[in-house]
Amino acid sequence: MNTLKVVEVDSVKYEEIINSSNIKIPIEQSVVWNNFSSSCGNYLFKYLVVFDQQLPIATLSLYKYKLYSFEYLWAKNGPVFLKDSYRNYEEDICNTLREYVRHN
After folding, report:
1. Strands, E assignment, the chain
2. What values do phi and psi take at 100, rounded to 5?
């Protein structure tokens, strides 16, 4: 049974969760990337955290992109696993995120 849940958070909570994990994240998944991405016309959709019960296991920032008339969301170099051991959840995390995006 999948116990994963996706939660939208603000930039402050997003950074708190990442900083508490003591990991280095790709610049494209950082809050500072938002200014650069926005200047290129690609705007933040949401900061998301994937929880397994109360434990955060992955984060991602999703951006809106448009190529001609095709619109899509992209989490460049994401999701970010907060511990290497959470990579065991990769398929479940991707499925949970897919369902979240489809319904939000």
Report:
1. 4-9, 44-52, 55-67, 70-74, 80-81
2. -60, -50
d(CA 52, CA 27): 25
Judge residue 54's burial from the number of C-beta atoms within 10 Å of its C-beta, 0-12 exposed, 13-18 middle, 19 or more buried: exposed
> Furthest-apart CA pair in the chain: how many Å?
42
Whether residue 26 is preceded by a cis peptide bond, meaning omega within 30 degrees of 0, is no
Neighbours of 60 (CB within 10 A): 22
**Mean pLDDT in consecutive groups of 10 residues from the start of the chain, 104 residues:** 89 97 95 93 95 94 93 94 87 93 92
What does residue 6 show for φ and ψ, rounded to 5 degrees? -100, 130
Of 56, 64, 72, the residue nearest 13 (C-alpha): 56
Residue type, 27: I
